[in-house]
Amino acid sequence: MCQVDNYQILVADAGNRRLRVVEPTGKTSTFAGNGVKDSVDGLLFEASFVQPTAIAVDDFGVIYIADGNSIRSIGRRFFPLVETVSDTRRGFSDGDLHFAKFNRPSGLAIGENGNLFVADSDNQVVRVFDGAEIGREITKPEIENLRFSPEEFRSLSEPRWTYNPPEKRREIAGTLGEIRGDLKDDTSQVWFHNGLDIAGGYGETARFVRTEKVLEPLAVQNFDTKRELIRMPTLGYIHIRLGREKDGKIFDDERFQFKLNSDKKLTNLRVPRGTKFEAGEAIGTLNSLNHVHLIAGRSGAEMNALDALILPGIVDSVAPTIEKVTLYDENWREIEPERDKTPVKFDGKTRIVVRAFDQMDGNAGHRKLGVYKLGYQILKDKMSVIDMKSTISFARMPDSDFVKLVYAKGSQSGYTPQTFFDYIVTNEVGGDAAREDFFDAGKLPSGNYTLRVFASDFFDNQTFKDIEISVEN
């Protein structure tokens, strides 16, 4: 909220995704936004907002809006247009205005020299626009130091599962980094699974694993869908009927503020900022997906919950399974051994794709989980020529743009009848960094070698598979 002139007040209405004006008389009207949840620029009533949360106006009358993960503006052109002046993708990067990335900016202020200051909430810093004289570009090590380490994260809460009794071990149904969707071609809509699925029973009560306060203005999302969730500062809980029983009966808990229509039907839910929940208190009950999707870490800095939380009694002595290894040239043509010849001939840049999955003690036999770490090694006469290196790691959530660098076509899970994880282990992907790469046979002398691929789980159980190859240069 801010004063536009001596009489009018401009309000960021996050819930309705609009900017609104309050007149001195108390009359309220819409200033910009069509109510659709999106980030679309254009004329005031054609533009859409994700979640406007803060407003600031400079001395020239330009209005700046913190919206979702971006900064928007009105008044920089002759015509009144809503414009996005930063990147819309969640992240953390300084530099040119249009390429800067934010993570839930929630406060704006104009300095006396016209600099725009941004409270970048989930990145936990104050940023500045057009302020070279008072700001500097942050380094990657400094960004990393702002984030929780798994050790720090574990120290903030007591060991427990997200059900009662808190010490009772539960089945893990999904892990960080698994592909979701069906990767058929370059247009396929696929994404990384960003949490840990902990199985429970339909209608079972889910509980908070850590004491936290709500900080987001719209912490509840996707109400009355299978993806209903509440986002706390460092943890997220998905697939839960928040604040109500499996039959829809509302909890006797005023912290859950439901909206009802004229027929007394529930239409929405709000949990106000500042609301505190203690570890062990009820969140709600499981919907038909029969598990809690638990996200560990701040938005944009999610980490592997197996490392970040202490889950009593969890055990894994089962090594991952490597189902097959497929080799391709740099143009994705499959490389097959010549008839009656065992070594596979390599003569250029090669992609190595490993189909693998993991399992855990106590899990159902059909349950296929993603692998924690993969890589490869080249040996000659049992001696290492190219040392074993981990190329893909899920210690932290990879950037959403990297999913097609991790997984090859044919990968599918989550919303498909089958589960296939085809990892491109010649690419390097981990957290914020990724690059396409190859095994280049041209860098080796001619001869016979062994290609060894490996897959590891979080508990250091490891599986190898060897393929005899021939290099001719």
Detailed description of the structure:
- 4% of the residues lie in helices and 38% in strands.
- With 473 residues, the chain is mainly beta.
- The strands form eleven sheets. It has a six-stranded antiparallel sheet.
- Strand 38 and strand 39 form a beta hairpin.
- It is globular and about 85 Å long.
- The termini are far apart.
Using only CA atoms, what is the Rg?
26 Å
Q: Supply the helix-strand structural class.
A: mainly beta
Tell me the overall shape. globular
| Helicity, as a percent range | under 10%
SSE diagram, text form:
Elements: E1 2-3, E2 9-13, E3 18-22, E4 28-32, E5 42-43, E6 52-57, E7 63-67, E8 70-74, E9 81-84, E10 105-110, E11 116-120, E12 125-129, H1 140-146, H2 150-154, E13 172-174, E14 179-182, E15 191-192, E16 196-199, E17 205-207, E18 212-213, E19 220-221, E20 229-231, E21 235-238, E22 240-242, E23 257-260, E24 266-270, E25 276-277, E26 282-286, E27 291-296, H3 305-308, E28 321-329, E29 344-346, E30 349-357, E31 373-380, E32 383-393, H4 403-406, E33 412-413, E34 422-424, E35 428-430, E36 433-435, E37 439-440, E38 447-456, E39 462-471
Parallel strand pairs: 29-39
Antiparallel strand pairs: 1-2, 2-3, 3-4, 5-9, 6-7, 7-8, 8-9, 10-11, 11-12, 13-16, 14-15, 14-33, 16-27, 17-26, 18-25, 19-20, 20-21, 21-27, 22-26, 23-24, 28-30, 30-34, 30-37, 31-32, 31-38, 35-36, 38-39
